[in-house]
Amino acid sequence: MHSEQKPIYLCRNSKEAFKLSQHFNSKEKVMALHDFINNLFKKHPNINMPFRVLNGIEEKLLWESSIKQYKKSSFDLSNIESLSETASQANRLIDQFLIGENTLKSEERSEEHAFFNAWRLIFKKYCNDKNIITFNGLIKIAIEHITSKDISIDCPIHFVNFDFRTPIEESFINACQTQIDVTFFVDTKIKPSIESRIFLNEEHECMQVVEWCRNQIEQNKKILIVTPQLDQIIDRLTSLLDKTFHPESFTPSLSQEKRIYQFSLNTPLFHLSMIYLNIKLIEFGARGFFNIKDLKNILCHNGWSNDQELFLRYRLIHQLERKRRGNVSIHELIEILETTEGLVHLTPSLMKHLDQIQVSHHEWREKRAPSAWIKTFDAYLKNIQSSLLNPRDGYEEGVYEAWKKITETVSSLDRLTDEISIQDMLETLQYYLKKTTHQHQHEGIFKIDILGFHEITYETYDATWIMNLNEHNWPTPQQFNPFIPIKIQHDCHINTHEKRHLHATNILDKFTHTSALVTLSYAKKMGEEDIFPSPILYPFISSKPHEDINFNYKKDTFNHDVIEYIEDNTSIKIDVAQTAKSGIKLLEAQSICPAWAFYEFRLGAKRLEDEDEENLTTRLRGNLFHKTLEQFWMEYKSSFLVSALSKDELSKKIQDIAHKNISAEKKKYPRILPEFFNIEEIRLINYLENWIQFELKRGDFEVKETEKNIPIHLGCLNFNIKIDRIDEVNQNKIVIDYKSGATKTLNEWFLNTYGELQMPFYALFASDKPIDAIAIGVINSSKPQWVGIGRDMELLKGIKDASCSAQYQSWDELLAFWRYRINDAAKSYELGDAAVRFAREKDMTYCHVKPILRLPERTLQFEKTKQ
After folding, report:
1. What is the DSSP string of 176-198?
2. Is the peptide bond before 711 cis (omega within 30 degrees of 0)?
């Protein structure tokens, strides 16, 4: 044993090692496990090592290749990315839990298991042929050599954050114990005072956390926020924190200024403006054409060519807009530049660089090795004067360094793959950029740390708030890997309920000891649905939770000695927050007839309806359309992925999803004849096949959100809306709503001064970022169509822009009109306006409380109707 030596603190990964090293002020030797093992082999050069160890992204790419090579598989390879990630995870679990080949073969029960075992043989052969290895494979080799004393360890080891160990980690630790002293690092624990709080919904919870931050910072405290939903709430939390502490950051030139807070979750490189521009420039060279919107975004960006010519490029943009065409080739773009009077002589750099793009387009048709492509891209970006290669400040320097690391990593793929096409190279580069994150390191001291539940911290804080502790958030739902037999996963305790519960409890316990004052919180509602606290929470709560649902109930006192006759066209003003359960329908009713909204939505009056249990209702049919489309677009998130499917593959995918949903509904409604469902299934498939084909004619688009729940506050009214879909076209957001029944005209949906508010509501509140168009997809029709309006009619064929109405000069003016209508209706409802007042009787068609309104008598009473 070498107990006299200074110990090494061994962490699972580099991120944890970096944090612990900071905690020790670099006074102790801290290493990540993979660095430690690599160093062991470097100290013993006599041991033969594979050429290299695969990182996670390389492993996933090799699995893609292995799956594609196996020709007998019946899997839909259009979703190869998800398939390869699941297979890669299964392979890691097999190695981590030391599952033998005989065990896998003996429990092979399905096609999925057989296919995976076949893919795994190809993957292992590929690794053997290329002289490469996975990290778990490296650990196995290290265990053998440490146990046999071929590798010696010369100092004690403190294992950090290894409370839950996989069998392979346990074997490695046991092997180390044969040579040196091994201990498990335990950080100091603070005894906390814990309070728990309940909020109306997650948005309210978020707002109160930020208010708590403001109070703590005013007292000069250092605080910690922890959530299991960090990736879901990061945008909302960032926006609220910036509004509270850094309002100046909403000015573009100051957007990168240092913050008082820091997240553990960083931004994918692909989403950084500088990186995205350069990928688009490379893509333009590869494709040789772009749609007008993409070209406009490239031309008006100062990150390439000569930015002194930037204002002259807008003349070229103006010429492009006049063309009103879908795609423009690089050749056509050069022609437009040359034929625009005087422009070509004023923009010599732009002309030169467009010529370079055209030359590159013709040169990039041959396959090349990844390293050759990276050299080609570097030369290309240098030739067209990309600012990425010439950083001007610390932020740009950091982005450039991150870009260089990625390109160096991609270049090293030469040994793993043959020469590839420009399209495959672009996909690989983009995948690396999307999976690699970047955080600009500001100087100074952060007062607020924000962590996810799978992070680690060695800091101590003045106060801690652990939020989003609902059962659907924590513990994370149990998920079995489909490629490993369930019996094996149970027998090996890979993901048992007890193990998940214990692990989740330990993680929560760890964060409750980060400060002396700890707050635990959860929400009561998600939209209109009740949600519940995590079962993990109960052992930590010693006193009754403080329920802060933002309601102040008032007792009304009545003087029964005096009876006063009053007009019933007004009610009590609403001055406490309340949820508008019927959402937008309430405001629509208020704008048509205030009394309708008052009786139906405030008092809850409704007509008696018999539930039709023996027929397919319109609502049920509509739900089937929505559910099937939601599941389809959740899997195929862009036109690119859908267009890659053959007609037969597309048809089969729609049939599979439709059949699954129809089968589920059959079980829910046993009294409806199966024949009715069978007819509906045929009808559903027919309409959706036509609809998807119709959508593919749009051009390029990405589906960013499906069935998105959004909480909204208007005065005292809290709304919860669900949006069918949000698309992105050339960085423009489009809200899409499906209609499977009869629809209305453009004027009725969007331009009325009363009535319909659904789509205007979506336009204003669907996203923190501006919405550029709203559209209704009319599906249930022999001729599918779009009915919509937006900033630019080119965003979606069939919609109009604001100029279609003489009343509005621009999209922003139309948005302002909608905002006025919505705010006016909300204010009217809050003030208690309950008058029977409407413009047209036909607008009352769907009013279910007409008998209460006593329309004929109203003309003889107090209110002056405007019928």
Report:
1. HHTTS-EEEE----PPPEEEEEE
2. no
pLDDT tens for each residue of 660-699: 999 988 888 877 778 888 888 888 998 899 999 999 988 8
Dist. CA 672–CA 467, nearest whole Å: 44
Q: Which own/partner contact pairs does 674-677 have at CB distance under 8 Å and 24+ positions apart?
A: 676/615, 676/616, 677/616
DSSP 267: E
Query: Which H or E run contains 465?
Result: strand 463-466
Two structure tokens written together for 333: 């773009």
Give alpha helix (H) positions in 260-309.
273-287, 292-299
Secondary structure (H, E, C), 69-130:
HCCCCCCCHHHHHHHHHHHHHHHHHHHHCCCCHHHHHHCCCCHHHHHHHHHHHHHHHHHHHH
CA–CA distances in Å: residue 725 to residues 585, 703, 734, 767, 818: 19, 7, 8, 11, 20
Residues ≥6 apart with Cβ < 8 Å to 390? none
User: Is the separation of the CB atoms in 210 and 241 below 8 Å?
Assistant: yes
Q: What is the pLDDT of residues 422-437, one digit of tens each?
A: 998 998 999 889 888 8
Side chain identity, residue 153? I
C-alpha angle with apex 791: 790 to 795, nearest 5 degrees?
70
Query: From CA 12, how far away is CA 172, in angstroms rounded?
Result: 13
Instruction: Give me the amino acid identity at 698.
Output: R
- Which tokens hold the place of 419? 């020469």
Q: Is the dihedral of CA 70, 72, 78, 82 positive or negative?
A: negative
Which residues, 6 or more positions from 438, have their beta carbon under 8 angstroms from its beta carbon? 266, 267, 268, 269, 272, 398, 399, 402
Residues paired with 448 in a beta bridge: 223, 261
pLDDT tens, position by position, 11-58: 999 889 988 998 888 889 999 999 999 999 999 888 877 778 888 888
User: What is d(CA 7, CA 3) in angstroms, rounded to the nearest whole number?
Assistant: 8
Rounded Cα gap, residues 2 and 156, in angstroms: 6
Q: How far is CA 78 from CA 72, 417, 477, 686, 778, in A?
A: 16, 20, 27, 22, 27
Q: Please give the helix or strand (H or E) that residue 358 lies within, else none.
A: helix 348-363
Q: How far apart are CA 373 and CA 421, in angstroms?
A: 9
The three-class DSSP label of residue 533 is strand
Helix extents (H) in 766-849 = 811-830
Rounded to whole angstroms, the Cα distance separating 118 from 121 reads 5
3-class state of residue 530 by DSSP: strand
All residues at 6 or more sequence positions from 201 whose CB lies less than 8 Å from its CB, including other chains = 523, 524, 525, 526, 711, 718, 720
Asked if pLDDT for residue 850 goes beyond 60, the answer is yes
Residue 652 is inside which H or E element, if any?
A: helix 647-668
> Burial code of 346-384, b = ≥16 C-beta within 10 A, e = fewer?
ebeebbebbebbbebbeebeeebbbebbbebbeebbeeb
Residue 613: count other Cβ atoms within 10 Å of its Cβ: 10
Give the number of residues written for the chain: 867
User: Strand, helix or coil at 549?
Assistant: coil
Q: Rg (Cα) of the chain, in Å, rounded?
A: 31
CA-nearest of 446, 396, 452 to 258 is 446
Give Cα 362 distance to the centre of its chain.
37
- Unique residue bearing structure tokens 């949903």: 661
Give the number of C-alpha atoms closer than 13 A to the C-alpha of residue 90, restricted to the C-beta side. Answer: 24
Quickly tell me which residue has 């729940």 as its tokens: 709
